Each structure stands twice: as C-alpha cells, then as structure tokens.
Amino acid sequence: YRHSYAFRGYISRGAENTAGVVDEREQVEIGDEAPAHADPTCVRPYYERLRGPNQWPAEEDCPGFRTELEAFAADMQALSMRLTGALAESLGLPATHFDPLFDEPHTQLKVCHYPALEAADANASGVGAHSDSGFLSLLLQDDAGGLQVQLASGEWIDAPPVEGSFVVNLGEMMQLASGGRLRATVHRVVRAPRRARLSVPYFFNPRL
C-alpha cells in the first residue's frame, strides 16, 4: 500500500484509523485498473492520482485471486447501476436520472479481515462509526456478524448476516444528490470475541 500513489494493495492491521481510533483490520484494496503515471507528483488535478495500477499478488502465490476479484467487481458494478436506477425511481425520477454521473464510475473493492477479539485487547472496534463518502456501498460478509447501523435516534442496531444477500449502504454523495431525502448510512464494525470476520465491501462512486 505504501508503494501505491493510488492507494492500492495490502494494508496492515492498525495502519488506518477512524475518528482517531485505530481500525483493527487488515485488507487488500483494488480499484479500476489504469496505466501508471510517469510522475504522480506532477499530475493535476490531484484527484487524477486516484487512477493507477493495482498491486496483485503473483499468480503462483494466490491462484485465481485476480481473476475472481475482477469478475466480482464487474458484477458489482452492474448491480450498482441497477440499484441506482431503482433509487432514482424511488425519488420520483426516471431510472436513468443519475446515469450521466456513471459513464466512467470510480470504484473500489476491498477484502477485509477483522481478527477475533481477545481478552487482552483494549479496542473492541473493528472500524469506528462513519458513513461512506461515495454513492453506494455493497457489502458481502461472512456469518460472523459485528456490523451495526445507527438509527436516526442515535441507537445502534445489529445488521446480522443474511445468507445470499448484500448489505447496501447509502453514501454521502447519494444524500447530497437526493437533497437529503436519502440519508447516508452511519455504521461500524464491532469485533466478536474469539471469532474472526471476513467482508468484501464494494464502493460505487461517480466519475472523478
């Protein structure tokens, strides 16, 4: 991850924080594949630095990893476009209303591992409370649990895994685009005692 100006690759446990609290997870992050900039420091506008190559493990070290994740990401993009159309219709708009924003969507895919909570750990948080900055987030999770969502009242409720389904979180861009009628989902992950957790979140955002 330190070798990628586009924030791609492996991120070790404890390398990130949310609101000043260390995130107890490790992850691999990929995005839309693009050629490397010859000199990223000269790229303008700055957000163009988010385009770049992924850092894939060697095929012999992790057979099928790249092939499977690229196919999964393509499926998630298609599903996200369908959901975006449905959300537009829920606002009384044509299903294609948001399509011009996504002629070249900016996407991210992560594979996250949250270690089990041991008695000696002081931090029970896998990732702290936050809302995603983008448009839509689709989450595939195992059966370990730990995902929680905050209601408008401030109460936290569990979002238990449902086999064969995705959790769909609305992001801050969707809240803005809907004039606040659709609220960004505030969520967090609480680590379970002696049970590791795996999740695969996909982030769907408008073009840069």
TrEMBL record:
The keyword Oxidoreductase applies. Residues 105-206 form the Fe2OG dioxygenase domain. Pfam families: 2OG-FeII_Oxy, DIOX_N. Gene3D superfamilies: B-lactam Antibiotic, Isopenicillin N Synthase, Chain. GO terms for molecular function: metal ion binding; oxidoreductase activity. InterPro entries: DIOX_N, IPNS-like_FE2OG_OXY, IPNS-like_sf, Iron_ascorbate_oxido_reductase, Oxoglu/Fe-dep_dioxygenase_dom. Keywords: Iron, Metal-binding, Oxidoreductase. The keyword Iron applies. Transmembrane segments: none annotated. It comes from the Eukaryota. PANTHER family: 2-OXOGLUTARATE (2OG) AND FE(II)-DEPENDENT OXYGENASE SUPERFAMILY PROTEIN-RELATED (PTHR47990). Belongs to the iron/ascorbate-dependent oxidoreductase family. This is Fe2OG dioxygenase domain-containing protein. It comes from Prasinoderma coloniale.
